[in-house]
Amino acid sequence: MSLKFEPRREIPAWLVYGTPLLAVALTILSGYFLFMILGLNPGATLYIFLVSPLETQFGLAELAVKAGPLILIATGLAIGFRANVWNIGAEGQLTMGAIFGAGIALAFWGEEGFWILPLMFVAGALGGMMWAAIPAFLKTRFEVSEILTSLMLTYVATLVLSILVHGPWRDPEGFNFPQSRLFTEAAILPVILEGTRLHAGAFVSLFAAVAAWVLLTHTVTGFQVKVVGQAPMAARFAGFSQKGTVWFSLLLAGALAGLAGMIEVAGPIGQLTPQLTPGYGFTAIIVAFLGRLNPLGIILAGLVMAISYIGGENAQVYAQLPQAATGVFQGMLLFYLLASDFLVRYRVRFQSTKARDAKPRPEVAAA
Amino acid sequence: MRNDAGGAPPRLELRGITKRFPGVVANDAVGFSVGPGEIHALLGENGAGKSTLVKIIYGVLHADEGEVLWNGQAVSLANPHEARRLGIGMVFQHFSLFDGMTVLENIALGLEGKPDMRSLSGRIVEVSKAYGLPLDPRREIHTLSVGERQRVEIVRCLLQDPKLLIMDEPTSVLTPQEVERLFGTLRMLSAEGCSILYISHKLQEIKDLCDHATILRGGKVVGECDPKVESTRGMAQLMIGAELKTLSRRGARPKAATRFSVEALDLASDEPFGTSLKRVGFEVGAGEIFGIAGVAGNGQNELMRALSGELTVATASSIRLDGKPVGNLGVEPRRALGLCCVPEERNGHAAVPDMSLASNALISARNRMKLAAKGWISRDATRAFAERIIQEFGVKARGPESAARSLSGGNLQKYIVGREILQTPEVLVIAQPTWGVDAGAAAAIHQALFNLAQNGAAIVVVSQDLDELLTLCDRLAVLNVGTLSKAIATADASLEEIGLLMGGLHGMTPEVPAVHGELGQGSGQHVA
């Protein structure tokens, strides 16, 4: 007997939306065994990991704080992925957005003005767009893979940030710590819920995801993105510009990642530091796929991923779990998601080894 | 040459072969036999299950039920290697040749084991001479014409001394002269005792060549006949399973104003092994159907892209629509002026397979049919338009939300042609309108084109199928190595004349690359 994979002719909808749930379930199951092997009480640890973040108002607010940037970035990435534009460098675009936003905050340090925050929003988006424009230009002009350029630019952005916080933007009263001054009030996103860190950024993310959903389902631009991604020849026939789509999706993803970065510095962090995020730009890739590249799904996926961040922190504190456990958890989630995705597209068949040598060509079925 | 009197077992016999694919029974209890030296036709429409059946015989696919007998012995054909060992050779519709390699290298790759190149080269020359298939083993494939490429495939089979040669739609890419030559070779093989299983839907060829015919429809054997005796009309009706509808042709028309003209169009191909267009020019009047004939790979793809606007040309005036220069305009601006197109490839070019029919309506009709005002898609208008295409063109689909990939080739083609025609274009450029489409759908598409022309549109048909062009067109010209011949009225044209224009003289067109020559054996998708 041997295994054989046949592409499914029609993919049932319940399977498409059911697989992320399956992936989450399998991750939890694997986590159970992982904790058991580590000699912990698996039930209690899972409880800390998955449920404890949801128990308090503070926890729920933290959830929104963490999920916000993930959803915002993943939304932009998903639109690119739909168009076959593989922007892996959201982390770099986020960093640039944070730098640009912080630049405004520092330039008007100590000043009052309702316009400072909006200006920071614009600057953050522009910073991310500028950083995403480089891979877009290289891709459309020289056909350089955006996967490589966007990823490598992430490290450049991190170094630029490093130069700034170690050099010109270092806090003069900061005892030589590599960080900028704390932003003044006019450059800080107001806290919405007293006693928590919940700020306006969460609503920006929610709005962006819903807007992206409308874009994808109700506009010609969204349609263009999908056609370019699924059938480039048909896109040409439709009169859609391939290059235009590359520019659009990279600039949009850059803008949203840049916004996320700016919101991080103007929200929970309040200053520019060398370590801005726990890898939101990369985790957002998982979030985009967990949400099936659908902005509404991404909202849910972002929340799930945020739980794993906060749960991971709680588990470090209460169960002495190493920090790597969070990474393992997220990695397993992506692994199971991709694996079950394969099973959505293909059905498994067993066949006798006798016919093993033949070339199975199920797609040549008499149409 | 049929040899069934001697009492010897048939060379090949099939009994109750059944093959199911998800959602379709491709072969349903098929049985027939082929005698030694017999030229046996397997006749059927696209989708009748011919290709599946021969792939089973050649060991590429495996039957779910039934048995294959070889010289009276039941055999199990696990793979093409075993089929070849028994003496079964197959020439696929799509060649599996490497463009950048020589004839000799390609043949050596297809043989079992590691042949001695020098003696192989000698044998190639020997075999190709003996069977009237001249070939130079040192030539590289991309320099060969399609007919010559087919010879490579045939010689490759002959070197293994086959007892049964399967030919899958061998003439679909050949000029009339090349067809004659091929038939000579096949008759010679038959006289030597090699059986031939000849797959086609071209009735005249089968009458000319074959001793016996098995007719398939919907995966079942629906009849057997002696094609020399049976009328073409009779065979066609067996094949289609319905009375043939006669097209309502248009009467003679007065000379009308030119609606679409191409003048001295030069275009360098942007693809490796592509064909550049050289000073192509023609004019099409209102109500006229103009045909562009020619073997694939002579610049058809480039011409289609230039006409549709997928490639723009620097000199705007080289393409004119109602006198207005449009050569420098892209696809959508040309569409806005009334130029609609149907590209050759349905899946992935004219339609997005994974999208719904409604979404596919947006591809080309969103602006002309006002399906998306100011960039906002109107779901209702889109659905309604898709519904209208389905209704008016008799597309068999569950509804506008069905995925394009769930439709059969013929139905999807009807949908695509309908999508363009219902936009009432001023000019319609259509490539291979009925390629891989069943006869019923083909007739419907032809009728729709006639009606569109009747209403004053100018139509350009690019096709390899001469019969189709002769049926449809008022005038036609032949595209050969990127140059277009002078136009001739179809009423005066003879097959020979057109064949000669197509470069039927052997070895006259060394630079013709085959666009359809895919790599990989039995390359899928296209079902005969």
TrEMBL record, chain A:
Membrane topology: Multi-pass membrane protein
Coiled coil regions in record: none
Primary subcellular site in the record, as a coarse category: membrane
A single Gene Ontology CC term: plasma membrane
GO molecular function annotation: transmembrane transporter activity
This protein's UniProt keywords: Cell membrane, Membrane, Transmembrane, Transmembrane helix
Subcellular compartments: Cell membrane
Pfam families named among the record's database cross-references: BPD_transp_2
Transmembrane spans: 12-38, 58-81, 93-109, 115-138, 150-169, 200-223, 244-263, 324-344
Stated name of the protein: Sugar ABC transporter permease
Biological classification of the source: Bacteria, Pseudomonadati, Pseudomonadota, Alphaproteobacteria, Rhodospirillales
TrEMBL record, chain B:
Membrane topology: Peripheral membrane protein
CDD domains linked to this entry: ABC_Carb_Monos_I, ABC_Carb_Monos_II
Domain of life: Bacteria
GO cellular component: plasma membrane
GO MF, one example: ATP hydrolysis activity
Domain ABC transporter: 12-243, 262-506
Compartments, record wording: Cell membrane
Keywords assigned: ATP-binding, Cell membrane, Membrane, Nucleotide-binding, Repeat, Sugar transport, Translocase, Transport
Listed InterPro entries: AAA+_ATPase, ABC_carbohydrate_import_ATPase, ABC_transporter-like_ATP-bd, ABC_transporter-like_CS, P-loop_NTPase
PANTHER family: CARBOHYDRATE TRANSPORT ATP-BINDING PROTEIN MG119-RELATED (PTHR43790), GUANOSINE IMPORT ATP-BINDING PROTEIN NUPO (PTHR43790:SF4)
Protein name as it appears in the record: ABC transporter
